[in-house]
């Protein structure tokens, strides 16, 4: 069961509770407390998922850097090979420089894309955690309001 499911069950428990006078709800405390305990226990899981997204971003960046280094190394080897084997030194040198520029441009583009993707993943992770916490806060505030109102109705 996910945290969101537990929140949905908590909401359903509140909404399905018997109604008293003036639309007040009689809430089964054990069920609500059980759901809250589950949420408390599983909230770290949601945070771990967000952290896993950040680790995934770091892996993507590292992979992009390795790929860029491989491209540059390959371009350098190709340039050396062209210089050594070619009878037209200027043409080989121009090709090698072009390969290096292309490799650099490709590596920079890959790095830029990786950074954008990692930032997007990071923002999505933070947004998801914020939404879960905001939803939990609203539901808990509503539960507290219902509980306070119920207690006030019980007082003479």
Describe the model.
By secondary structure, the chain is mainly α. The protein has one domain (3-154). It has three helices and no strands. The model has no long low-confidence stretch (mean pLDDT 85). Keywords: Coiled coil. This is ATPase. Residues 50-113 form a coiled coil.
Short description:
Residues 50-113 form a coiled coil. With 156 residues, the chain is mainly alpha-helical.
Count, helices? 3
Query: What's the number of structural domains?
Result: 1
Q: Work out the helicity level.
A: over 70%
Give the overall shape, derived from the CA principal axes: rod-shaped
Quantity of strands, as a count = 0
Mean of residue pLDDT? 85
User: What are the segments in which pLDDT stays under 50 over at least 5 consecutive residues?
Assistant: none
How do the helices and strands follow one another from N- to C-terminus? Answer: HHH
Structural class: mainly alpha
The radius of gyration computed from the alpha-carbon positions, rounded to a whole number of angstroms, is 30 Å
Task: Report how far apart the termini are.
Answer: 42 Å
Portion in beta strands: under 5%
- Give the biggest beta sheet: none
Oligomer: single chain
Coiled coil: 50-113
Protein name: ATPase
Keywords: Coiled coil
Give short descriptive properties of this protein.
156 residues, mainly alpha, 0% strand, ATPase, coiled coil
């Amino acid at each position: 069961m996910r945290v969101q499911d537990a929140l949905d069950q908590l909401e359903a428990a509140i909404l399905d509770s018997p109604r008293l006078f003036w639309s007040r709800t009689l809430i089964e405390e054990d069920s609500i407390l059980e759901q809250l305990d589950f949420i408390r226990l599983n909230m770290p899981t949601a945070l771990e998922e967000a952290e896993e997204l950040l680790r995934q971003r770091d892996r993507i960046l590292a992979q992009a850097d390795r790929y860029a280094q491989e491209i540059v190394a390959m371009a350098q080897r190709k340039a050396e090979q062209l210089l050594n084997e070619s009878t037209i030194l200027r043409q080989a040198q121009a090709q090698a420089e072009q390969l290096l520029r292309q490799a650099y441009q490709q590596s920079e583009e890959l790095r830029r894309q990786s950074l954008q993707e990692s930032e997007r993943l990071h923002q999505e992770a933070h947004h998801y955690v914020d939404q879960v916490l905001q939803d939990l806060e609203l539901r808990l505030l509503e539960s507290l309001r219902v509980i306070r109102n119920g207690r006030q109705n019980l007082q003479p």
